[in-house]
Please model this.
Amino acid sequence: MLPVAEVLHSENQPQRTCIGCRKKGARSELLRLVAESTGSTTVLVDERRRMAGRGAWLHPSEACLALAVKRRAFGRALNGATGTADVERRILAGKQAGPLRKPPVAAAKTVQPESGSEN
Model:
């Protein structure tokens, strides 16, 4: 059974559907894709999730990308956009970087003594 904090947190997450595997996931787990606004057929990854226009969502995995290309999902979701080079580059770069790990935080060295009673 999940703790109450995790249940409440997961329920508050907006759900989106991946255009590759068609499974729902939290918005924070998926990449937002948009068609380039200049009228070309290029699909761009919206890293900040703020670009104008209709968006499509994709899990950042090669399997979902392959399914989306096979199903021609980019063209349907983004009105004819088919150029996926930017999306492929982003997914492959994420794979090579490996899992995100935070570096250990070193103890901060104080400039002055904390107590003030060093006389």
User: Anything to note?
Assistant: The mean pLDDT is 81. The domain at 12-97 is CATH 3.30.1230.10 (Hypothetical Cytosolic Protein; Chain: A;). Strands lie at 15-17, 24-26, 31-35, 43-45, 55-58.
